[in-house]
Write a structure and sequence with these properties.
Blueprint lengths: L20 E2 L22 E2 L6 E2 L43 E2 L8 H16 L2 E2 L5 E6 L10 H28 L4 E2 L4 E2 H6 L15 E7 L2 E11 L3 E9 L8 H15 L4 E6 L4 H7 L3 E2 L2 H10 L9 E6 L3
Parallel strand pairs: 11-12
Antiparallel strand pairs: 1-4, 2-3, 5-6, 6-9, 7-8, 9-10, 10-11, 12-14, 13-14
InterPro entries: Acyl_CoA_acyltransferase, GNAT_dom, IDM1_C, NSD_PHD-1st, PHF12, Znf_FYVE_PHD, Znf_PHD, Znf_PHD-finger
GO molecular function, one term: acyltransferase activity, transferring groups other than amino-acyl groups
Keywords: Acyltransferase, Metal-binding, Transferase, Zinc, Zinc-finger
Length: 320
């Protein structure tokens, strides 16, 4: 589970003054009913430190390990250790696990670039190659605990504007997709993604998503949800265009602009789940390739890539 730890303010701030997020012991006790890698049921191995569940084959195991077993999310990404100390009142220890804002050791440039785009979009949208259509990057914002009374009014006004834009983006997705209700939480999956709903369960932790959209005359017409895992991979699980603006190349334009942006910061590939009726568009028209099961399993063990039953995971190499 992730949180903004404000109890150890001095110890938990990085060089930029922002609050580091520290992994806590998970409060959810009920184990998940589907595998966090392939999103399917069956005989599952439960993590001993969080509710995540996995098929043995999906995490490369032949049999159930003896003793405690921890999933990748509950192990340090450097040493692989799973001992956890979440009491930071006296500062960090060698068992404190902190979260990277973009989930990869080499992601500083990626994170700063995306944050800059989100900040720029509040002031102005970025022009695209199509006249009158601009690109916006949005994300739900979280403030440090040091916001003062003198600046709170400004943040409140910005929050209202940001929330309105995110609601408009969600409205586009609701127009494009049937209702997507997550069985475990009984919540709107699209809203959870757009508003960065967090969870101690690996597959339902949607922190880190950005909303990218095309605007025409101040209206969002095409929207995608983007999450970037350092410079290794970016995912685009949801993308849709309002009915009135379809068959005008807006989806292609959005993907092209995203690819350009991701190449600028060195992201190597873009992945997405394709429904059967749109698979030819993604592969034949937009240059994606269907992934093999082994490729999907290898990627999903390391990164919490969002996928849906009945879809085909596709990828496109951005940098050789």
């Amino acid at each position: 589970m992730r949180r903004d730890d404000v109890g150890a303010a001095a110890a938990n701030r990085n060089r930029n003054g922002s609050v580091m997020r520290v992994k806590e012991k998970c409060s959810e006790e009920e184990g998940d009913s589907v595998c966090s890698v392939c999103i399917d049921g069956g005989e599952l191995l439960l993590c001993d430190k969080c509710p995540s569940a996995f098929h043995h084959a999906c995490v490369g195991l032949q049999a159930t390990p003896e003793g405690d077993w921890c999933c990748p999310l509950c192990r340090c990404g450097v040493c692989g250790g799973s001992d956890l100390d979440d009491d930071t009142a006296e500062g960090f220890t060698d068992k404190t696990i902190i979260y990277c804002e973009q989930c990869d050791p080499e992601c500083g440039e990626v994170f700063q670039h995306l944050q800059g785009l989100a900040a720029s979009s509040r002031a102005r949208s970025i022009p695209t190659t199509v006249e009158g259509v601009s690109l916006s990057t949005l994300r739900r914002r979280r403030y440090m605990s040091t916001v003062t009374r003198s600046t709170r009014w400004q943040h409140e006004e910005e929050d209202v504007a940001d929330h309105g834009q995110l609601c408009a983006a969600l409205d586009v997705l609701h127009e494009c997709f049937d209702d997507m209700v997550e069985p475990r939480t009984q919540t709107d999956l699209a809203a959870d993604i757009v508003f960065n709903q967090e969870s101690g369960l690996r597959r339902l932790n949607f922190r880190g998503y950005y909303v990218v959209g095309l605007e025409r005359a101040g209206e969002l017409i095409t929207v995608g949800t983007l999450r970037v895992f350092g410079n290794q991979v970016a995912e685009l699980p949801l993308v849709g265009t309002r009915f009135a603006h379809r068959r005008q190349g807006m989806c292609r334009l959005l993907v092209t602009e995203l690819e350009k942006m991701l190449r600028q910061v060195g992201v190597r590939r873009l992945v997405l789940p394709a429904v059967p009726e749109l698979l030819p568009m993604w592969t034949a028209s937009l240059g994606f390739h269907a992934m093999t099961r082994s490729d999907v399993m290898e990627m999903a063990v390391e990164h919490a890539i969002l996928s849906f039953k009945g879809t085909t995971m596709c990828q496109k190499t951005l940098l050789a």
